[in-house]
Specification:
The complex is a heterodimer of chains A (248) and B (297). Chain A has 248 residues and is of the alpha/beta class. Chain A is 28% helix and 24% strand. Helix content of chain B is 86%, strand content 0%. The chains are: A alpha/beta (248), B mainly alpha (297).
Chain lengths: 248, 297
Amino acid sequence: MNAITLTSVTVAYGNVCALREVSLEVPAATALGIIGANGAGKSTLLKTVAGLLKPVRGQVEVLGRPPARCRPALIAYVPQVEAVDWSFPATVRDVVAMGRFAQLPFYRRLGKRDEVLISSAIAHLGLESLTDRRISALSGGQQQRVFLARALASEAEIFLLDEPTTGVDAATEQMLRQVVRELVEQGKTVLMTTHDLDSTGAWFDRVIVVEKAVIADGAPEEILALNIPLLREHGHGHATYGARLPFA
Amino acid sequence: MATVTQRMARGSPLLEFLSAPLQYPFMLRAMVAACIIGALCSFIGTFVVLRRISFIGDGIAHASFAGIVLAYMRGLDAMLGAAVVAILAALGIQAVHRRGGVSIDTAIGVIFTGAFALGVFLMSRLHSYSNDLEDMLFGNILGVSVSDLYGIALLAALVLFLVWCSFRALIFLSFDPVVAQASGIRAGLVDQALLVMLALTIVVSLRAVGIVLVAALLVTPAATAALVAKRFGNMLLYSVVIGVLCAVGGLYASYYLQAASGATIVLATTVTFGITFVVVQIQKYVLHRALREESAR
């Protein structure tokens, strides 16, 4: 069974078509890179798989079910750090703990197992020394690691990462890459949008190029060899998740 | 009761100051109501501030006026009428926003002003004018009866139960609604629950502070707590403490200054916010100057 199956999926915002007739099959234990210009529909694709956007046509299946009918926390969505207000009164640990919330009945407190998962996710991303720090006092790279730690703590099967390497330091980038490869080794499926075409070989097993539809699909080296003129001079599509950096 | 408090107070000016108003049964009832309402509003207010829906509280309060007038015309309980219309208006606004793609502030502006206007329209057609209706606009906590107190306590308990059921989902949705939804938390349902809780809280508080001022009791204690709290739990605690102290303190102040109780309570929260804001700013300034001097050295 494929981890993710999209069958001629069309997504629209109002009457603006963001994705047209996208069909995609992603087997489990795959790291899939999604590249494309700003406004090409990369984030839309992730949100559609996450069940946050409903396609106007076509079908989405995650491990054989529509996203809305998946078990809680099966899908971990890792948004861009600009997506939330970091002045929220919470510590690093508080945010990582949120990864456990969806699968915990409301009448039960965080158990020993939850605590272990939270602590090990924090340790995995090298955040131990920041555990009790307020999140408003974190750097961009640290914020991104907190988001990924929260996803790890949720024990999801499907990880959707929206441009996690934008604006982070080299050490964080390397750490993220290592985590992605580990997840794939554990049989998890990772979909990640990126604008860094050159280093896709180190991250992904497979890369797709999105421009309202999937216009190329293959191994990273094949996609690189295609030399697609991806750089749109003035890509000003939808501000889907606040990705304002020019595609480069 | 009165003689007991008087006997206790004898000899200490502070105790006398505190116990003198309580010799009146209506002040005692008002004090109990102020404590419950102060705690409840500032508790729910924490979520309202973090979800950035402060404006909704004001809107729900105004909309409920239509329910109060309708209940009055039919000879029904004002609180019941207010509750029904407040809940309908709160859910209506969410439906218009989510399904109709109308922005939330616009939906509030349309629905709540409409409902308030309906209340005013109906009231203007009443031939007999009622003090009850004016009390609802500006609040009269001194007029709280024992049965009102039971109603307030019951609704407060219901709201606390609903918050307990949705506590973690509310926090997650306040911080990161997109991820919360992706992980399977039912945002629509939790939002509806929050709006119902908010509507009930507002209705409970109308007697005390009135339609015009209830939003302040929701927002100001929580906003004050947000200035100083590092974690969500602390913010919730500080907010409730500030809410109760301001409600009780405001009531004492209104007794000794012979001023309107609702307005005095709200002013107490505003002054608390102002002082906290200034202190935090001074603290920041001192800290930054120390850092600058250290780096200059």
